[in-house]
Amino acid sequence: MTTQEVANRYYELAQRGQIEQIQDELYASTAVSIESENESDLPIRVVGLPAMRQKEQQYYQQVAEMHGGQSGVPIVAGRFFACTQSMDITLKGQPRRNKEQVCVFEVIDGKIVSEQFIYNDAD
Fold first, then answer.
1. What's one Pfam family here (predicted)?
2. What does pTM read for this prediction?
């Protein structure tokens, strides 16, 4: 798949909240995930789908309630695509808030090989 095709499929699945299917279908098994420096105890960099899933589980263990979310239409440039994402969320022991981020993905040989989430976790 081309980067545009991967981006389109990512967007289609994200609209339905099918994160596991996104990972299974679109990610390389050795993909890298990079978080912005954050105030949580999430690792900033993990490698491989098992580690990415573990990080995701660790994040959702901090969630008291997920009220909604969305993913913006991706923009493609060469082997990269980016989109905005937001979550209306209440983390345990914290007030409800809207967390917004920019996500940048690198695609090589039809698979996502890296993802980076850029956000300000201190708001």
1. SnoaL_5
2. 0.90
